[in-house]
């Protein structure tokens, strides 16, 4: 599939993830890239039952090495939080004082591929690469934000993130190992 066809198939983020709200990124000048990890409910037609699954969508073709690094940071942060919880026996009980905004306001102009036969979106983790500040122009002004649509069992999220890391690692190994092979 060509990049043009792929781009044409993308839809506005509010149509792909209707009703989702995220905490805003206060200093975002421009959204450069979005990786959305989505937990959703779908109807398994032959069995007539509702199942849960995970999917990911990107706003454009990612720099896979950079995306892998961002995912690894999130994995390490979650591992640290969970290890602290498990060793102390206490769970983090944050008051939810975050502000929320409709996804199209947080990620203006972002388009994603549709999910298909989805009954309901359960959770979204958006890894967002953005330019920050009023005069953002160079590489130093680019940051990553990790935005969650709601609280989720962090051990479950860690598992889903680790799977995405493994998929990216495998893709990169295949790409790197084929680079030196003559056809």
Word description of this protein:
The radius of gyration is 18 Å and the shape is globular. Helix 3 (64-88) runs antiparallel to helix 5. The protein starts with a helix and ends with a helix. The protein contains five helices and eight strands, in the order αβαβββαβαβββα. The chain has 183 residues and is an alpha+beta fold. The protein has one domain (3-179). Strand 3 and strand 4 (49-58) form a beta hairpin.
How many helices?
Answer: 5
Q: What multimeric state do the chains show?
A: single chain
Most strands sheet = 4 strands, antiparallel
- Total domain modules: 1
Q: Could you estimate the helical fraction of the residues in percent?
A: 25-40%
Average pLDDT confidence is: 85
Tell me what portion of residues adopts beta-strand conformation: 25-35%
List unreliable stretches of 5+ residues: 1-5
| Rough outline | globular
Structural class: alpha+beta
| Strand order across the largest sheet | 4-3-7-8
Spell the H/E element sequence: HEHEEEHEHEEEH
What's the end-to-end separation, in Å?
A: 21 Å
Beta strand count:
8
Radius of gyration, whole Å: 18 Å
């Amino acid at each position: 599939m060509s990049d043009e066809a792929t781009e044409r198939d993308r839809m506005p983020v509010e149509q792909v993830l209707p009703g989702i709200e995220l905490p805003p990124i206060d200093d975002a000048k421009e959204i450069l890239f979005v990786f959305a990890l989505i937990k959703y409910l779908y109807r398994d037609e032959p069995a007539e039952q509702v199942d849960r699954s995970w999917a990911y969508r990107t706003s454009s073709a990612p720099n896979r090495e950079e995306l892998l690094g961002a995912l690894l940071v999130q994995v390490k942060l979650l591992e640290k939080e969970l290890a602290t919880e498990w060793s102390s026996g206490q769970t983090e009980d944050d008051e939810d004082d975050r502000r929320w905004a409709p996804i199209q306001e947080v990620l203006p102009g972002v388009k994603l591929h549709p999910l298909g036969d989805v009954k309901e979106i359960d959770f979204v983790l958006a890894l967002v690469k953005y330019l920050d500040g009023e005069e953002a122009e160079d590489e130093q002004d680019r940051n990553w934000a990790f935005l969650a649509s709601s609280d989720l069992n962090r051990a479950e999220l860690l598992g889903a993130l680790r799977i995405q890391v493994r998929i990216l690692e495998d893709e990169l190994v295949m790409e790197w190992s084929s680079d030196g092979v003559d056809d």
